[in-house]
Amino acid sequence: MSDQFDLVVVGGGIVGLATTLQLLRRRPGLRVVILEKEAEVAQHQSGHNSGVLHAGLYYVPGSLKARLCTEGKAALEAYAAEKGIPFELCGKLVVALNEGEMGRFAALRERAIANNVPDLRDVGPEEIREIEPHAAGIRALHSPKTGIIDFRQVALAYADDVRVQGAEIRTGSRVRTIRERRGEMVVTYSGRDGVERQVVGRNIITCAGLQSDRVAAMTGAGGNERIVPFRGDYYTLTPDARHLCRGLIYPVPDPAFPFLGVHFTKRIDGEVWAGPNAVLAFAREGYARSDISLRELAETLTYRGFLRIARKFLKTGLAEMWRDFSKGAFLAEMQRYVPEIRSDQIFFGPSGVRAQSLRKDGSMVDDFSLGESAHVIHVRNAPSPAATASLAIGRELAERAITRFELA
């Protein structure tokens, strides 16, 4: 006999948990089960990130990212204060190193102003040194309300709350198939013992991160997007070097490239990370250089969208790969922003993998991407700032679900 639920949520990361929480706040008593393939929740992007509470500098005005980042950050700070989860508004400097970067710097400033980033300031060399005494730069945007938090701790708090409100979280449950049967959705999954089981839900929301396109394809809604995994490696500063970075020091991003470049990040536990680079991961969940899935790698290398973007960013991609294997090259990039940092003050690790959605034409999906069908809502693309925006994304999905699924 299959288990019966009003809603099945696929994915126990921070977005799936936040969505369940927001649904149960609006519809108490809803019968919900979360299926998570790992032994614990928040094991991938939710637990492998730099821990930055983004203030909304980078995102296209009017986009889902811009709107939900602002709303989500405020909601998350209130939630963290209520739960006693530590966070700190340590501030961020986005630094221009030379005149050649000033055009991109001005464009970023205009975007941040359009997004109503609070207390944003344009500062010169003297104020840069006051804020970050060891940073280089001729001009910087200072966002004092950008902060840091432990998102895995946040996700665990969400999980506790949804359990209290009656939802069930089944970890170690890998979804194998999804099919419609007489107006209901039958989800087959395998447990840790390898035995296949089923749950039946009136409706489904998928928040599967690195597996989101595969799960969408199970419902017949594969769409025109494919997840390509990019690994980002960090170096960690030794304790004697942590004073070189008081908060967050970022480069001016290249709007043509979706990654922010090597930057310095203070962590809520007191550590300071530098990175990440952005290189193709050889497995969807390949956190180490040696993690290789030949099947998954072949899928990526034969995907038309990846081949097109690889040609477009060949020079940039090769530079990223060189920095990944050369500590000296990585250090040289770090020293552009903090010249005093030395080789003996950094050590390798940790790493994360970003699920980046690509279209067949080689364009990257820049915004959050949500898809809907009769009984299913898919989160197709939810890169940074999804963790910051998690409660707002959850609210958005909950409201769409209530309307589309007619949840009384």
Give the secondary structure arrangement, pairings included.
Elements: E1 3-10, H1 14-26, E2 32-35, E3 52-53, H2 64-83, E4 87-88, E5 92-96, H3 102-114, E6 121-123, H4 125-131, E7 139-143, E8 147-149, H5 151-164, E9 168-170, E10 174-181, E11 184-190, E12 196-206, H6 212-218, E13 225-237, E14 248-251, E15 263-266, E16 272-275, E17 279-280, H7 294-301, H8 304-312, H9 314-325, H10 327-335, E18 346-359, E19 369-372, E20 376-381, H11 390-404
Parallel strand pairs: 1-2, 1-12, 2-9, 5-14, 12-20
Antiparallel strand pairs: 3-8, 4-8, 5-7, 6-7, 10-11, 11-12, 13-16, 13-17, 13-18, 14-15, 15-16, 19-20
Radius of gyration, whole Å: 21 Å
Please mark out the parts with pLDDT under 50 across 5 or more consecutive residues, or reply none.
none
Q: Please provide the count of β strands.
A: 20
Q: Percent helix among the residues?
A: 25-40%
Sheet-strand content, in percent, reads: 25-35%
CATH superfamily of the largest domain: FAD/NAD(P)-binding domain
Question: What class would the helix/strand composition place it in?
Answer: alpha+beta
Instruction: Give the tally of structural domains.
Output: 3
* CATH A-level architecture of the largest domain: 3-Layer(bba) Sandwich
Mean pLDDT: 94
Distance between the termini: 26 Å
Major sheet description? 9 strands, mixed
